[in-house]
Amino acid sequence: MESHSEEHATKLLQAQTHVWNHIFKFINSFSLAVELSLPDIMHKYGQPMPLSKLIASLPIHPSKTCFIYRLMRILTHSGFFSQHNGIENEQEVIRYELTDASRLLLKDHPFSMTSLPQAILDPILVNPWFQFSTWFTNEDPTPFHTQHGMTLWDLAGREPKFNHLFNDGMAGDARLVSSVMIEKCKGVFNGLESLIDVGGGTGTMAKVIATSFPQLKCIVFDLPHVVADLQGTENIKYVGGDMFEAIPSADSIMLKWILHNWNDEECVKILNKCKEAITCDGKVIVIDMVTESKKEDDRLVETQLFFDMQMMVTLTGKERNEKEWGKLIFSAGFSNYKITPVLGLNSIIEVYP
Ligand SMILES: C[S@@+](CC[C@H](N)C(=O)[O-])C[C@H]1O[C@@H](n2cnc3c(N)ncnc32)[C@H](O)[C@@H]1O
Ligand SMILES: C/C=C\c1ccc(O)c(OC)c1
């Protein structure tokens, strides 16, 4: 009897920890404290950095020096730094090193993700969460709309600082994804003469592809406020416009992280415009998530579910499984598709007319 109730208490306490852990999940996000540039400071030091040196290099008030150890402790626990304890001159010295994760937060890393936490944790994207429960009771399209009274794209057009952070964050991801694509599946672009990156942001993806395929004519097509000040090159042109109105013609179109921003009806409209724009032997190259395909990777599954919620709160979009992708593609009148799951969270979906 006693051991039974002991077991009961253990289970209850585990459940309590589970709930507390969940309540506090946002603390992991805010603890990144990207404004402190911890990874850059440690990278500049060039070797495992003692806590005292780290504190001395930070632009903080002297009254805050004692808090850095605690910040480093949680960031080490969550995999952003590794810690080595040693004794030097009879004194305990803690040294920290970067990990693969914190290297992606270096400002000068080619695949830098630094702007993303800044954009995603900006009040512009966090405040809509306070409308989440209200939104379930009204007919607004998104909690973002309840909060701001307009779409994310309209607001980005009016907030240059946020627009810059957002596009910069997207650029880091585009650089990583395009490099992996060029390395692992160059074949996707073989034989293409022209490519339009629809919703191509500031042209990062196009630049990497154009370097590997100099004969390929690339057009970066995005909203006017995104491409306004950008200068094209020999084989990259910037065109401002609305993909729901008209897309320039080419033999192929890329849609990276576009369709997951939109609901099924909107996606069919976009895909229809793509179909009108490409030649009959061309294709649409979709780069987006395919959910439920890597069930064994719990972290990847959870991250895709986070993206799905982010799409629900900021836009009308969602993440889709293979069946949902198929339905979308056939509804838009395409005849076939091929999924290549080689991009971590994302997959390449080649769509044929
Ligand atoms: C999530 S971002 C993806 C950017 C880029 N493809 C990438 O993956 O790095 C979506 C892009 O769609 C663009 N966009 C939104 N509405 C659009 C429209 N109606 N026509 C063209 N582009 C649009 C946005 O400006 C933004 O650059
Ligand atoms: C800003 C948060 C992240 C994010 C990632 C991929 C997207 O397609 C997106 O569209 C708004 C946002």
Report on the architecture of this protein:
It contains 17 helices and twelve strands. With 353 residues, the chain is α/β, with parallel strands linked by helices. It folds into two domains: 83 residues, Winged helix-like DNA-binding domain superfamily/Winged helix DNA-binding domain (Arc Repressor Mutant, subunit A, Orthogonal Bundle), CATH 1.10.10.10; 238 residues, Vaccinia Virus protein VP39 (Rossmann fold, 3-Layer(aba) Sandwich). The radius of gyration is 23 Å and the shape is globular. The termini are far apart. 47% of the residues lie in helices and 20% in strands. The strands form three sheets. Strands 6-5-4-7-8-12-11 form a seven-stranded mixed β-sheet, with helices on both faces. Strands 1-3-2 form a three-stranded antiparallel β-sheet. A two-stranded parallel ribbon has the order 9-10. Helix 11 crosses helix 12 and helix 12 runs parallel beside helix 13. Strand 4, helix 13 and strand 5 form a beta-alpha-beta unit. 30% of the residues are buried. The protein binds S-adenosylmethionine (SAM) and 2-methoxy-4-[(1E)-prop-1-en-1-yl]phenol (EUG). S-adenosylmethionine (SAM) binds next to helix 12. The site of 2-methoxy-4-[(1E)-prop-1-en-1-yl]phenol has 10 residues, from helix 7 and helix 16.
